[in-house]
Amino acid sequence: MLVLGLTVGSLGLLMLQHLVSGHWGIIIRRSLESATRTLPLMVLAFLPIVLFGMHHLYAGHGDEKGWLNAPPTGEGALSTFRKAISPLMAFLAFTAGQSFISAFGYC
Predict the structure, then answer these.
(1) Spatial contact of 67 and 61, defined as CB atoms under 8 Å apart
(2) Which end of the chain is less congested by CB atoms within 10 angstroms, N or C?
């Protein structure tokens, strides 16, 4: 998460600098551009979590619960949102976000 935060933060700062065409960002522009080049690497690093780790994070076996499971009933229950936590939906949300950044980040 730290590396992803630095990457996306650099992208946001770079986009802001290009948006306002300020001279304040000329010195750090190359560093920000090189930091944003790690986004494809972050996508590759996220794929094993989606493909192999989601089962261990969200699914339980019998009485055993997953690491991030909410209680099935009562306060904090997410029974109506079970489909939104599926690995496919997480992958699609991440892919859509990265596509948006790729499409509008380098304009």
Answers:
(1) no
(2) N
